[in-house]
Write a structure and sequence with these properties.
about 160 residues; alpha+beta; five-stranded mixed sheet; 5 strands
């Protein structure tokens, strides 16, 4: 079986896996990383959203071979030690989660959005398109706007 070496949440890993094995199964089953959730397996629900070299991807449809030599970040790698990412803080402040299943993917999609645009519109936020069966979309939107404002204030020193 081929070996694939890449970095996950700052740690270099090497796994033995078929080249076409979805990265999600490598993360969850081989590496024990449980943040990215399996929802659909076909790039629709986005519960597994993670970052590959800083870009949001859905590892349920990304073969492990595409991760070779690259940086993978899951929800577990988002915080800086005990210091939560501003999006994670905003999620808590806005009381976004209900069941919580989709939240890691939602948060990772929001972080990627805020990397692309520091002041997202409602349309920008709606375009992240992660499915939440509990229907917390309004609170998701408010949390992203709060995180954007806090990140902008931190950048300007206010």
């Amino acid at each position: 079986m081929p070996q694939h070496t890449f970095t996950v949440n700052g740690t270099s890993v090497t796994v033995d896996a078929p080249a076409d094995l979805p990265l999600l199964w490598v993360l969850r089953d081989l590496l024990g990383i449980r943040g990215p959730k399996y929802g659909c397996g076909i790039d629709v629900c986005k519960a597994c959203t993670s970052h590959l070299d800083g870009e949001a991807v859905n590892p349920c449809v990304v073969p492990v071979s595409e991760a070779a030599g690259r940086q993978v970040t899951t929800i577990e790698g988002l915080a800086d030690g005990e210091r939560l990412h501003p999006v994670q803080k905003a999620w808590l402040e806005q009381d976004v989660p209900q069941c919580g299943y989709c939240q890691p993917g939602q948060i990772m999609a929001a972080v990627a959005l805020l990397k692309r645009t520091s002041n997202p519109t409602d349309a920008d936020i709606d375009a992240i398109d992660n499915v939440c069966r509990c229907g917390t979309y309004f609170r998701v939107r408010e949390a992203i706007k709060l995180a954007a404002a806090k990140m902008a204030a931190a950048e300007t020193g206010r």
